[in-house]
Design brief:
With about 450 residues, this protein is of the alpha+beta class. It folds into two domains: about 5-10 and about 345-445, Immunoglobulins (Immunoglobulin-like, Sandwich), CATH 2.60.40; about 30-340, Aminopeptidase (3-Layer(aba) Sandwich). It has helices spanning about 30-35, 40-50, 70-85, 165-180, 200-215, 255-270, 290-295, 325-340, 435-445; strands at about 5, 90-100, 110-120, 125-135, 185-195, 215-225, 240-245, 275, 300-305, 350-355, 360-365, 375-380, 390-395, 400, 410-415, 425-430. The longest helix has 19 residues, at about 325-340. The two termini are about 35 Å apart. The model is unreliable at about 5-15 (pLDDT under 50). The chain binds zinc ion. Zinc ion (ZN) binds near residues 134, 162, 163, 225 and 226.
C-alpha cells in the first residue's frame, strides 16, 4: 500500500472554487503547443461558409453547390481532405451515410443522413475517441409555421451557433491534431460532423451503433453543441466559462469523464472556468452524446454558459451573434481533454470487497491488468465531493488495500501509461450492468462484485 501522495482540501466550493480539481493529471508540452495553434479566424471562416449555404436542414437540397445540406457536407469533406493532404494522408476522410426514416414526419420519408468523418488512426486502432458537432440546422422554433416547422427545409436556417460553432470547432481540432500529430496518438480519434441532429439525433445514433457493431471500444464521445453565444436575453454576459454535461449515475463512465474534462481543462486553461453539470443534458433538451451514453459509453456535452432561446432554431441564430474567441476557448478545452485521454491507456475494470481482517474498516480493491499500463493509481472521494480528493500510488500491481471506509465514499482505479498519461477513472463499486451494458460485461467475464444498483432497477 502506497501513501496518499496528494490529499486535496475540502471539496470544491462553488463560490470560491478553492479546491484542486486537477486529479494529479499533468500538462503535456506537445499537446499545449497544439492547443496554442487553435485559431479563432479559422473557426470564424468555417462557420461563415456554413451559414452562407442558407439552410443546412437535413431534408434540404443536396444537389446545389451553393445552397443546402449537400453543399455544406461537400465543403466540410473537402476541407478535411485538404488537412489530410497537408499531413501526408494522415486523416481518413469519409462520408458516413445511412437511409433513415423520419419518424416524426407525417409521410415518414426515408432520408439519407450523411455524417462527415475524419479518422486520425492511433497506435491502438480498436479504441476510439469521438469528437463531434452537428452541421444540420433548422428553424423548428418558428411557431408561425405550425407543427411542420421541424421539417421546413427551404427557408433560411443559418444555425450559426446551433451548431455551426460546434462543427467549426471540430473541423479546427481536426486541422490542429492532424498537423501536430500526423502519426496519431495512442488511441484513434474520430472528428465528426453529424447530420439529422435536429430531427432526433439520427446521425449520432447511426455512428454510435456502427462503431459498436464493428467492435470498437469507445473511449469517449464528446459533442460540442451551441458553443458560441455569450450574451443572455437580459444582457448578462459570460465569455469566460462553459458548461459540461456528464450523465448519471454518479459512479458511471460519463460522470468520470466529466471529472476528467474538468481537470484537464483547468490545467491547460485555468482562466477559462468550467461548470460541470451532473446530468445528461439541459432539461428537456438533447444532444449527440446521448446515443453513446445509452450504449454504456462515456459521453459528454460541451455548451455555452448562457443560452438565448430567442436565437435558437430561428432565423435569428445568425453569424453576427457568435463570439468566435469564445468558441476557440471551447475548442482548446476540447483539445486538452481529447489529447490527454487519447494518449492514455484504457481504464481497468475494478471491484471492491470488504476486508474482514480489518473488521470491515478497510476495503480490498482489485482490477484487471491493462495492456500498456506501467502502474495504477487508486483515488478516493467522499460521496458529497464532486471530484476525487485523494490519490494513492498502487504501483505495478492489481490490488490495493484501501484505508478509507468505502461505505462513506467512492473509490476509483486508473491506469498510468509509461508516458505518464492517466486513463479515465473506473469507479468502485461500479454501476451494475444495465440491459445495454450487460452483454459487454458478460463477454468480458466481469465479476460485478458489490456493484451499485440504481434505485428502481
Ligand atoms: Zn444543436
Amino acid at each position: 500500500m502506497g501513501p496518499a501522495t496528494v490529499v486535496f482540501g475540502p471539496p470544491m466550493s462553488p463560490t470560491t472554487g478553492a479546491a484542486d480539481v486537477t486529479l494529479g493529471l499533468t500538462r503535456d508540452p506537445a499537446l499545449a503547443a497544439a492547443i496554442g495553434d487553435i485559431s479563432t479566424s479559422e473557426i470564424r471562416a468555417t462557420d461563415s461558409t456554413l451559414v452562407s449555404f442558407g439552410t443546412r436542414h437535413t431534408m434540404s437540397d443536396t444537389l446545389s453547390n451553393t445552397r443546402g445540406i449537400g453543399a455544406a457536407r461537400r465543403y466540410l469533406f473537402s476541407k478535411l481532405q485538404g488537412y489530410s493532404q497537408a499531413c501526408g494522408g494522415c486523416l481518413r476522410v469519409e462520408y458516413d451515410p445511412a437511409m433513415m426514416e423520419m419518424r416524426g414526419h407525417p409521410d415518414r420519408p426515408m432520408v439519407n443522413i450523411v455524417n462527415v468523418v475524419a479518422w486520425l488512426p492511433g497506435r491502438d486502432t480498436t479504441r476510439v475517441l469521438v469528437m463531434g458537432g452537428h452541421y444540420d440546422s433548422c428553424i423548428c422554433a418558428r411557431t408561425d409555421l405550425g407543427p411542420l416547422a421541424r421539417f421546413e427545409a427551404t427557408q433560411d436556417a443559418p444555425g450559426a451557433d446551433d451548431d455551426g460553432t460546434g462543427t467549426s470547432a471540430v473541423i479546427e481540432l481536426a486541422r490542429v491534431f492532424s498537423k501536430h500529430f500526423p502519426h496519431g496518438l495512442e488511441a484513434s480519434v474520430i472528428f465528426v460532423a453529424y447530420s439529422g441532429e435536429e430531427e432526433g439525433l439520427y446521425g449520432s445514433t447511426h455512428l454510435a451503433q456502427r462503431l459498436h457493431t464493428a467492435g470498437y471500444k469507445i473511449v469517449s464521445a464528446f459533442t460540442d453543441d451551441i458553443v458560441g453565444n455569450v450574451v443572455a436575453d437580459d444582457g448578462k454576459v459570460d465569455s469566460t466559462s462553459a458548461r459540461i454535461f456528464g450523465a448519471e449515475p454518479d459512479n458511471g463512465p460519463s460522470r468520470e469523464l466529466a471529472r476528467y474534462a474538468w481537470a484537464t481543462g483547468t490545467i491547460y486553461n485555468p482562466t477559462f472556468q468550467i461548470l460541470p453539470v451532473f446530468r445528461l443534458d439541459r432539461i428537456s433538451r438533447g444532444g449527440d452524446h446521448s446515443p453513446y451514453v445509452s450504449l454504456g459509453d462515456p459521453g459528454l456535452r460541451f455548451t455555452e454558459r448562457l443560452e438565448n432561446y430567442k436565437r435558437q432554431h430561428l432565423p435569428t441564430d445568425d453569424f453576427a451573434h457568435v463570439n468566435f474567441g469564445y468558441v476557440a476557448n471551447i475548442a482548446r478545452l476540447n483539445g486538452s481533454v481529447v489529447g490527454t485521454l487519447a494518449n492514455a491507456p484504457a481504464p481497468p475494470a475494478a471491484f471492491a470487497r470488504r476486508d474482514q481482517a480489518s473488521g470491515g474498516q478497510k476495503w480490498m480493491i482489485t482490477w484487471r491488468p491493462i495492456p500498456g499500463a506501467a502502474t495504477y493509481e487508486v483515488l478516493f472521494r467522499r460521496t458529497f465531493s464532486p471530484t476525487y480528493e485523494k490519490i494513492y500510488q498502487a504501483g505495478d500491481t492489481t490490488s490495493f488495500l484501501l484505508p478509507d471506509q468505502l461505505d462513506d465514499g467512492w473509490a476509483a482505479v486508473r491506469s498510468v501509461g509509461s508516458n505518464g498519461h492517466r486513463s479515465l477513472t473506473s469507479a468502485v463499486p461500479p454501476p451494475c450492468p444495465t440491459l445495454s451494458t450487460r452483454a459487454d460485461s458478460v463477454a468480458a467475464g466481469d465479476l460485478i462484485r458489490n456493484c451499485i444498483r440504481a434505485p428502481g432497477r
